[in-house]
């Protein structure tokens, strides 16, 4: 299938070399299109028009087999610290190229944890999604929306079925990393803002360039 999603990951390993060896070893049955080191070095392992084994089981917006409909980028990071500036700069440049080649919209750039909330947490709470959004490379909520049921907003955004706790965790990792404890009003209002942004972006994409909603 034609790539329609861009999925971001962290490797969760101690070094770039260890991650590269794992991603290139057929015995582990895991791969990605790209790996980016903390120093900003980009390694391509799979052609963009070929299927990589980076997403595994999961869904997004009601669609499964994410491996066949996405491009995966692995960031060398153990998951317990910030992502280096050269790494983020290299990621941004690579994303611009990929998104232009395949006409992938910012709303279709997702975290591994978004599409597999019951088993994945990457790229984690330390990843700077707002930085990407400021450059038009990802979605970030603009303020807060109305207080409405969290499950409705998460469904509208595209999150798959999982326990309420896992879905809340995945949402917070991506859009509300400071959130803690049980679901609260700020979670619901932030999720509503994201859902409104997603729906607006999809309406605009459906209308085509040069057409705006009244």
Largest sheet: 5 strands, mixed
Structural class call reads: alpha/beta
CATH architecture: 3-Layer(aba) Sandwich
* Individual helix count: 7
Rg is 17 Å
| Helix content class | 25-40%
Topology pattern, helix = H, strand = E: EHEEEHEHHHHH
N-to-C terminal Cα separation, in Å?
A: 34 Å
Question: How would you concisely characterize the structure shown here?
Answer:
By secondary structure, this protein is of the alpha/beta class. Helices cover 37% and strands 10% of the residues.
Could you please describe the fold and organization of this structure?
There is one protein chain. This protein is of the alpha/beta class. It has one domain: Peptidoglycan recognition protein-like (Lysozyme-like), CATH 3.40.80.10. It contains seven helices and five strands, in the order βαβββαβααααα. The chain has helices at 16-23, 85-102, 112-115, 129-134, 150-157, 164-175, 185-207, and strands spanning 5-10, 34-36, 42-44, 70-75, 109-111. It has a five-stranded mixed β-sheet with strand order 3-2-4-1-5, sandwiched between helices. A hairpin with a 5-residue loop joins strand 2 (34-36) and strand 3. It is globular, with a radius of gyration of 17 Å. Mean pLDDT is 94; it is low at 210-214.
């Amino acid at each position: 299938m034609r790539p329609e999603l861009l999925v971001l990951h962290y490797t969760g390993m101690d070094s770039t070399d260890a991650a590269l060896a794992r991603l290139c070893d057929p015995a582990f049955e895991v791969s990605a299109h790209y790996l980016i080191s903390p120093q900003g070095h980009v390694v391509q392992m799979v052609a963009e028009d070929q299927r990589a084994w980076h997403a595994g089981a999961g869904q997004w917006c009601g669609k499964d087999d994410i491996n066949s409909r996405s491009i995966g980028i692995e960031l060398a990071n153990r998951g317990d610290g910030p992502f280096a500036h050269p790494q983020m700069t290299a990621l941004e440049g690579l994303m611009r190229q990929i998104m232009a080649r395949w006409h992938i919209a910012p709303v279709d750039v997702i975290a591994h944890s978004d599409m597999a909330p019951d088993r994945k947490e990457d790229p984690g709470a330390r990843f700077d999604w707002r930085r990407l959004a400021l450059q038009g490379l990802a979605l970030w909520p603009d303020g807060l929306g109305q207080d409405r049921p969290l499950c409705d907003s998460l469904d509208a955004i595209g999150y798959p079925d999982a326990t309420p706790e896992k879905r809340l965790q995945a949402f917070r990792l991506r859009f509300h990393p400071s959130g803690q404890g049980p679901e609260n009003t700020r979670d619901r209002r932030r999720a509503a803002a994201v859902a409104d942004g997603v729906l607006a972006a999809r309406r605009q994409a459906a209308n085509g360039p040069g057409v705006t909603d009244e």
